[in-house]
Known about the structure:
single chain; 341 residues; alpha/beta; ten-stranded mixed β-sheet; 10 strands; globular
Amino acid sequence: MSTSPAPVSSTRPSLFVRSRLFVKLWMFKAVVRLFIWSKTYLNKAPKHLQPTYLKSYAECPGITNRVFVPSDYKSGSAALPLFIDIHGGGFAIGAPLLDDPDNIELSQKHGICVVSIGYRLAPKYPFPIPVQDCAAAIQAVLADPDLPADKSKVAVGGYSAGGNLALAATQLNGLNKRIKGAVAYYPSTNWNESREEKLEKATSPPGKKDMLVDMIPMLNLGYIDYNQDRRDPLLSPHFAERAALPEKLYILGCEYDLLCSEAEETAEKNAELETGQKVADIEGVGWTKGRVRWRKILGVEHGFNNVVNSMKEAPERKRLLEKRADMHADVARWLKAEVYA
Length: 341
């Protein structure tokens, strides 16, 4: 009888190493909090680049969510398809505000009602609290009578850690039956692989080191206990049963990203259970098989769609903005054909 692979050893580092990583994590959180505060109060985006309104739910106290409704939507018109966004940040940093440019693009260009939800962050709130928070927030959004959204046409998605949470939270409370599709942008899906194993399969950015190489130990410290089973499907969606996930899956990876291989392997694993042939994209960097789609975005690093927001260099900024627009256009086409139809 075959046996499942054993979880990766969770040897606890020395007290000195843990202390150094802990201080580094909190310093990083402080810098990001200051940036978010400045974006919230000092350097607000123009009105047309802000959410339509903010919304809090009693089920998720202390969390402010951001709602984006297409500007041409008229009250009383047909309800809109709904996309629930989950921000990234290694489970320890970030906020819904940081996804505003992406959510505005999905909403205004593609006619989708978007709700960007928040969750409590590590290390104060480690696994599985963010997963549970996201599940509670998704349920609250689905129960919200004020949203101009068709609750039969719902997808959940997220970036990086948010992609992980989109695949994890929808395994709880029967949400996989209520959420028809999930979009995971460059997600972490397999915590059973060590950083060194990920590096062996990764394509590094030309001329520099992948940004995640030095961040993974710090973020791991904040989110998971060393004794945690890293094959838990709520932590590593790669190990989730297909039936536990939403019916339709679209997983994307970035070419120069430590997480790209595991994201593709998760797409492949779920596609194995699909009938029919795998249909490759013309450009050869993606495929669709049954209810599962995979795409590798060439020439970009992890988090490129957020990094571009603070870039000044005109040619590179233009290239990444075009990559982001193309990514969202493809996701919107897939949502309208597979999830919202």
